[in-house]
Inverse folding.
């Protein structure tokens, strides 16, 4: 199909291009300097193809020229089209006030905040795992105390039975008294140790729950908040575990000292049955206290590790909170740029549908610039240069 070109075929796009290149009212043909040069691609954008008259739609006539009913039945469209179309040429003034740079800074701050929050969540998970290990070691110590209590109860029951079997035997009566003291002490030790182990377990569970929340949180602020809770709970577990270890160690030391003292006193009075019984009971208690030395050492190690990891998690949370604060500030700063300014208006373009007159800020557009572009594009698209 043959192409036809005209200056009016680009009456909307070409004049605006001309207005951008030259002062208002000047023609490209009158411009000083290099001659007009335009690419084929740009011509294809600017110049509208015009079909031949015999293929254009004509109201009331079919493709063979015969009369047919018009398409606009019942009077056609009732929409009143304005005679003049106008629009403003605008630009985003915020981009000239550093908006793009501020947006980039805000995006960077958001990325950093997300990374720091993720690190805090990871540290919280590590701390929670350490707290769980401490809780396990604390329970092991409680189980050891329980076993000692069971053994002491068994010994007391046996002592009572022996005393009943031989009434009036003073030595057996003293053995019953000593066994009762040992059993009561073992029961107290187990009760306290189990309660402390339960406290460590509760803190470890809280740390794990919070660490999981931190991992699942979708916002940096949410991750940091949950990680902070996890770090606090993990530190509580570590402190409780260390308290158990310290108390157990102190009890072992005290039991050993008491056994040594009782043995020395009994040695000074070899014929005193009461002292001998007390020395025997003290030795039994010292042996039981020393039996859980491995559990105490493991608990102390676990408590120390949990405390270290809880501190690391807390530090990571602090870094995350700072990054989140900077992120919020950066986004607020970006949002405030040109907040109440709106768009900058260069001018108004008007096009009269009846006359084909195109103006920019009241000044006519068109003339030689439009004609020269049309001729140049006609040559380019026809294979010329």
């Amino acid at each position: 199909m043959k192409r036809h070109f005209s200056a009016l075929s680009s009456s909307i796009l070409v004049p605006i291009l001309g207005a951008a290149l030259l002062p208002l009212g000047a023609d490209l043909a009158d411009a000083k300097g290099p001659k007009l040069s335009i690419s084929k691609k740009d011509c294809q954008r600017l110049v509208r193809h015009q079909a031949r008259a015999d293929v254009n739609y004509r109201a009331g006539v079919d493709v063979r020229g015969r009369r047919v009913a018009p398409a606009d039945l019942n009077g056609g469209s009732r929409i009143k089209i304005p005679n003049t179309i106008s629009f403003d040429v605008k630009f985003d003034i915020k981009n000239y006030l550093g908006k793009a740079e501020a947006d980039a800074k805000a995006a960077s701050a958001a990325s950093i905040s997300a990374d720091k929050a993720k690190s805090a969540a990871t540290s919280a998970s590590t701390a929670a795992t350490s707290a769980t290990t401490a809780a396990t070691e604390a329970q092991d110590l409680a189980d050891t105390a329980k076993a000692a209590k069971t053994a002491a109860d068994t010994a007391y029951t046996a002592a009572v039975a022996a005393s009943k079997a031989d009434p009036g035997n003073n030595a057996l009566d003293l053995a019953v008294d000593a066994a009762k003291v040992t059993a009561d002490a073992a029961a107290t030790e187990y009760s306290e140790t189990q309660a402390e182990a339960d406290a460590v377990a509760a803190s470890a569970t809280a740390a794990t729950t919070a660490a999981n929340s931190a991992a699942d949180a979708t916002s940096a602020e949410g991750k940091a908040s949950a990680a902070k809770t996890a770090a606090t709970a993990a530190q509580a577990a570590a402190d409780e575990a260390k308290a158990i270890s310290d108390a157990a160690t102190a009890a072992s030391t005290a039991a050993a000292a008491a056994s040594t003292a009782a043995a020395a006193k009994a040695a000074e009075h070899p014929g005193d049955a009461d002292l001998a019984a007390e020395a025997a009971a003290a030795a039994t208690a010292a042996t039981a206290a020393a039996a859980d030395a491995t559990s105490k050492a493991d608990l102390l190690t676990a408590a120390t590790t949990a405390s270290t990891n809880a501190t690391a998690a807390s530090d990571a949370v602090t870094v995350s909170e700072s990054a989140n604060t900077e992120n919020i500030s950066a986004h607020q700063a970006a949002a405030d740029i040109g907040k109440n300014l709106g768009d900058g208006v260069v001018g108004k373009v008007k096009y009269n549908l009846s006359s084909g007159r195109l103006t920019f800020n009241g000044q006519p557009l068109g003339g030689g610039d439009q004609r020269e572009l049309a001729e140049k594009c006609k040559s380019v698209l026809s294979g010329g240069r």
Remarks:
- The two ends are 21 Å apart (CA to CA).
